[in-house]
Amino acid sequence: MAKILIYNNQKNMMETYYKGEEEAMPYNKGTLKVKEFRGGSKSNILWTDRRTMQSWNNFRAMYAKPIYVGFAFKRSWERRT
């Protein structure tokens, strides 16, 4: 179970979600699972903002293929191998 913090720019506040590895990320149309968003990170706390998830939805709709994001959301101090 991951704790997901999302900054909602429309409400100017942080939102907290608890999701399993196989569940879709909040504000996502089901194409990006928590496990994919986490990538190789070992952290149980993940964070992003609502605009990022909306951008993902738009890009995924235009690209029309799976998109690998294993390194996209990794913290800078985590190893990239």
The Cα radius of gyration reads: 12 Å
Spatial order of the strands forming the largest sheet = 2-1-3
Q: How many helical stretches?
A: 2
- Helix coverage percent of residues? 10-25%
The pLDDT mean sits at 84
Number of structural units classed as domains: 1
> End-to-end span in angstroms?
24 Å
Shape call: globular
Largest pleated sheet = 3 strands, mixed
Class based on secondary structure composition and strand pairing: alpha+beta
Strand content: 15-25%
Unreliable stretches: none
Give a quick summary of the entry.
This protein has helices at 34-38, 50-63, and strands at residues 2-8, 13-19, 45-49. It has 81 residues and is of the alpha+beta class. The mean pLDDT is 84.
Explain what the structure shows:
- The protein has 2 helices and 3 strands, in the order E-E-H-E-H.
- The protein is α+β, with helices and mostly antiparallel strands and 81 residues long.
- The chain has one domain (2-63).
- The chain has a 3-stranded mixed beta sheet with strand order 2-1-3.
- Strand 1 (2-8) and strand 2 (13-19) form a beta hairpin.
- It starts with a strand and ends in an 18-residue tail after the last helix.
- The mean pLDDT is 84.
List keywords for this structure.
81 residues; 3-stranded mixed β-sheet; globular
Q: What does the secondary structure layout of this molecule look like, with pairings?
A:
Layout: E1 2-8, E2 13-19, H1 34-38, E3 45-49, H2 50-63
Parallel strand pairs: 1-3
Antiparallel strand pairs: 1-2
